[in-house]
From TrEMBL:
Coiled-coil intervals: none
Protein name per UniProt: Aminoglycoside phosphotransferase domain-containing protein
Organism placement in taxonomy: Eukaryota, Fungi, Dikarya, Ascomycota, Pezizomycotina
Transmembrane stretches, start-end: none
Domain of life: Eukaryota
Aminoglycoside phosphotransferase domain boundaries: 57-314
Cited InterPro entries: AGP_Transferase, Aminoglycoside_PTrfase, Kinase-like_dom_sf
PANTHER family (alphabetical): AMINOGLYCOSIDE PHOSPHOTRANSFERASE DOMAIN-CONTAINING PROTEIN (PTHR21310:SF37), AMINOGLYCOSIDE PHOSPHOTRANSFERASE-RELATED-RELATED (PTHR21310)
Length: 493
């Protein structure tokens, strides 16, 4: 399923406005501001004078500073146009990192300081300052430099060394129990019976965020909403898929595609009850991160391959334990992005066998012999492999899916009554949906053409003032202020 091209233009214009402000701020040497957060108020400097060498990720821009005593920090800002709900994202991520540092041995960076948008005197949004970890990114070792997939020439010993440490981290997270599904805020509680974290707000998932950012469709629960059961949460996620399918005007390509997607997502909704594992519905729930994968980790060197840093804890939340059992990241990119079955799936399955073996070997060491057999990740993983549940999980965790993607193909193969479930969907519902989507698609194409012309005019202008373009978009796309929260922060007024 494609992104909404109108919001892609709006996001890019927002980013260009923000990055210009960031560049101006960097030229003014914001190191004095950073020094205010150091316990000793030590002076610091950028480790490079070239702003192009700042680390530009998918969601965040980071710069490195060095203090007069040699201490190094990373200062990280969510990028406008790449991230929405930025204050919420930062608060959740910091709470998660602090929790993990206190309750596990996972090498999470030490958060030195953080703040919401209103706390940033520079006027470029919320921030996190953390210690800089010197090492080598795992993606340099595992990832094909020309594609987001694992290199063919990586030895099994290297993969096993990385995977074994990854399993160790995941099993440590399994020891943390939560009473409901949602994201952490700025606090947690502990009692004499063990650790019990407080979940304060809705799950801030990558999928819901991407639907809003790239599709313009808000499927988030209300801010203070948490979920008490796996079934309730799964229904919420699939309802979000259906809302996204209905509300994003270009969510279908043509009449056939509209028909197929409507049927597929409605069948998947009917499968929720059979894919909730017995005795797992009401928890305890486990900490999950939608972007926790080896390529977001740092090793000490290419010989030892000891992971010394686990980064990027945004999109973390307490979730159904069974979701943790399905490792989508084995080949780096998720099978959700594969539009047909080929040799990649064979590689994925071989790596899944390796992962399963390591998991069975490491469980007794970390969870102990007395851990409930039904709740062991290896037990849940086996159950997920046997009836297509792992593909159901992948559809739940990633957005912009479609009937041609591998998880849909495999789930249909392993759902013996799929055709029967599909035939139960009323034909008049399908026809009404198809008719609506064809009208949506025509209006979308007209609006996109108009926006592309306005974007081109601004891009080719001398000043490149994006404010008129963004202002017109607010009317055209019915965008509320929360999408461009950075423009209404007090420090800009």
């Amino acid at each position: 399923m494609d992104f909404d091209g109108r919001f892609a233009l709006d996001n890019n214009a927002s980013f260009l406005s923000w990055i210009r402000r960031y560049d101006d701020t960097r030229e003014q040497k914001p190191t004095e501001w950073v020094s205010e957060f150091h316990p000793g108020r030590l002076t610091c400097k950028h480790t490079t004078t070239e702003k192009l060498k700042d680390n530009l990720g998918a969601y965040n821009l980071s710069c490195k500073v060095e203090f007069e005593n040699g201490e190094k920090w990373i200062v990280r800002f969510p990028m406008v146009g790449k991230v929405l709900n930025v204050d919420e994202k930062i608060e959740t991520e910091v709470a998660t990192m602090k929790l993990i540092r206190q309750k596990t041995t996972i090498p999470v960076p030490d958060v030195k300081a953080w703040g919401l948008a209103a706390d940033n005197a520079l006027g470029i949004g919320p921030f996190i300052m953390m210690d800089f970890i010197e090492g080598i990114s795992v993606d340099r070792i595992l990832q094909n430099p020309k594609a987001r997939i694992m290199r063919q020439d990586v030895s099994e010993n290297v993969v096993e060394t990385i995977f074994r440490q990854m399993v160790d981290f995941l099993l440590q997270l399994q020891k943390l129990d939560f009473s409901c599904i949602g994201s952490l805020a700025s606090g947690f509680e502990a009692d004499s019976g063990g650790f019990s974290a407080m979940v304060y707000s809705r799950p801030l998932t990558k999928k819901s965020h991407d639907f809003l950012l790239d599709g313009g469709v808000d499927v988030f629960a209300p801010r203070n909403k948490t979920f008490a059961s796996t079934a309730e949460y799964f229904h919420h996620v699939i309802d979000g898929d259906l809302q996204h399918l209905h509300d994003q005007p270009n969510s279908v390509d043509d009449e056939h595609d509209a028909r197929e997607k409507y049927i597929y997502f409605n069948v998947i909704k009917s499968l929720v009850s059979r894919h909730v594992l017995p005795n797992q519905d009401t928890g305890p729930f486990k900490l999950i991160c939608d972007d926790l994968q080896p390529t977001n980790m740092i090793v000490n060197n290419e010989q030892d391959l000891k992971i010394i840093g686990v980064l990027d804890w945004e999109w973390s939340y307490a979730a159904p334990a069974q979701l943790v059992s399905t490792p989508w990241w084995l080949l780096i990119e998720s099978p959700n992005v594969w539009s047909y079955i080929d040799k990649r799936l064979d590689r994925f399955n071989r790596l899944l066998e390796l992962y399963s073996r390591i998991l069975a070997e490491e469980e007794p060491k970390i969870l102990g012999e007395g851990f409930d057999e039904d709740r062991k990740p290896s037990t849940m993983l086996q159950a997920c492999e046997e009836d297509g549940r792992q593909w159901f999980h992948m559809i739940l965790r990633r957005g912009f899916n479609g009937p041609a993607s591998v998880p849909f193909i495999k789930l249909r193969e392993q759902t013996k009554d799929w055709d029967e479930l599909a035939s139960a969907i009323p034909e008049e519902e399908i026809e009404a949906f198809v008719s609506k989507k064809m009208a949506d698609l025509q209006k979308y194409q007209e609006q996109l053409a108009e926006m592309e012309e306005r974007y081109k005019v601004t891009w080719n202008s001398d000043l490149q003032d994006w404010n008129p373009f963004l202002s017109d978009n607010r009317r055209l796309l019915v965008i509320d202020d929360s999408r461009r929260q950075w423009q209404s922060w007090a420090c800009f007024n």
